[in-house]
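Z., the sequence and structure:
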Amino acid sequence: MNRSVSKLSTAVALLAIFSTAAAAMSMPSLAVKVDVPFDFLAGNERFTAGTYVFERGANDNLIQVTNSASGERLWIRVLPKQVSRGEDRPTLVFDKYGEDHVLALIKNPANQNGVEVMKGRLARELMAKRKSRVTIAASVAR
């Protein structure tokens, strides 16, 4: 009986290791550096205009946003999303409500991977106040 439990434990441990390795190898990479010419919201955070690096974390549901000038790093919650290959370089998509810009999507069409930025409380309040929405796509310069 002890031997059966031991074999089962070993099998479960190996399955967990191989599953984790397979997930890590299949996880799409996403790293985008972009100059954002306006203040914007992402998740529950406000960002000033500037150069930012957006990088996927170890978790598919988190993106690290780094301000290139100050080095300040914040995490935003995202959902993986398949995107079309229409553009040939990464693109940030912002929704504009009045004068406020809300980061909505980060697209990496080279491998059809992207992420949808989860709306935080601030973005939801803006959406409720303003009925009109304009979408702005900003491609990353090469």
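The CA atoms of residues 51 and 70 lie 10 Å apart. Helices lie at 2-26, 121-129.

Let me know what you think.
H.
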